[in-house]
Specification:
There is one protein chain. Helix content is 32%, strand content 24%. It is elongated, with a radius of gyration of 22 Å. By secondary structure, the protein is α+β, with helices and mostly antiparallel strands. The strands form 2 sheets. It has a 6-stranded mixed sheet with strand order 2-1-3-6-7-8. Strands 4-5 form a two-stranded antiparallel sheet. The chain starts with a helix and ends with a helix. The protein folds into 2 domains: 38 residues; 147 residues, Cytidine Deaminase, domain 2 (3-Layer(aba) Sandwich), CATH 3.40.140.
């Protein structure tokens, strides 16, 4: 092997090592994100905001004159200076369809100015309503879907995506592949 061949072999070896290191770093970052997302390391302040969203969903808002027929939710993340920021969304519209007819614009914040220096979004949550439509002549009774809907799953974009079932008091974690875990609200709040 002459000098040029040895130099080329050394260069190829360095490229292989760099590729392996890059793969290792990507795996480490991905593993950290998965552990974070599925380790349920949701800050206490965010859990408190989630409880407030459940209460708000059960109260009248907008066109929901009884309460229990609209979604509430929000997002949380970290600001450019490393502080936690919680962004509550405006109430979703009233839905009399039950099933999976309720919705919420998660990025339509009550205080949009809080997102001004948002560096990273860590998660989002929203409450599936707990209202029950009583059966009437010509209209059957119904309840809202409590787990993540097909639309929720299709639109999962954050490291942590949470649906809280106001009726079944269950916290559902989900991603683009569906529900990844669930736990009772009482357990989640510990």
């Amino acid at each position: 092997m002459d000098y040029e061949e040895a130099k080329a072999t050394k260069g190829e070896t360095m490229i292989r090592i760099l590729r392996l290191l890059t793969i290792a770093v990507v795996i480490q970052i991905w593993t950290g994100a998965v552990i974070y997302a599925h380790g349920q390391t949701v800050p206490t302040e965010v859990k408190q905001a989630m409880i407030a969203s459940i209460s708000a969903s059960n109260r009248p808002a907008g066109g929901d004159t009884k309460g229990g027929f609209h979604e509430e939710g929000g997002m949380w993340g970290v600001t450019t200076d490393g502080k936690l920021v919680i962004l509550a969304s405006k109430s979703g519209p009233a839905s009399v369809k039950c099933g999976d007819g309720a919705h919420l614009l998660i990025g339509d914040f009550v205080q949009p100015e809080l997102s001004a220096n948002l560096a990273t979004i860590l998660g989002e949550w929203h409450v599936h309503p707990g209202g029950i439509r009583e059966a009437t002549t010509g209209a059957p009774g119904c309840v809202f879907v409590q787990p993540p809907s097909a639309a929720d799953i299709r639109e999962a974009a954050c490291p942590i995506n949470i649906v809280i079932g106001a009726s079944d008091k269950t916290v559902y974690f989900y991603g683009l592949t569906g529900t990844t875990s669930k736990t009772k609200l009482k357990e989640f709040l510990r």
